[in-house]
Design brief:
Elements (H helix, E strand, L loop, with lengths): L12 E2 L11 E3 L6 E2 L12 H7 L10
Antiparallel strand pairs: 1-3, 2-3
């Protein structure tokens, strides 16, 4: 599996400046302004590849009785 690069802190943005195809992962919720990752996303995704890997996990296989 290829390594996914960590998003740059230069992409971070506030809710009011967040645009289409920017990562919606909340990076900081300190004070009065929430900061989002803001890195580029793939069409149809709300998260950059780095955060998508954190958000989605494979379901555990059911245990056999």
């Amino acid at each position: 599996m290829s390594e996914i690069p960590e998003p740059s802190s230069r992409d971070q943005t506030s809710l009011l400046k967040l645009r289409a195809q920017q990562c919606r992962f909340i990076g900081s919720d300190a004070g009065s302004e929430t900061i989002f990752c803001g890195a580029p996303t793939s069409p149809g995704s709300s998260w950059c590849p780095w955060h998508r890997r954190l958000v989605y996990t494979k379901p555990l296989s059911p245990r056999l009785a």
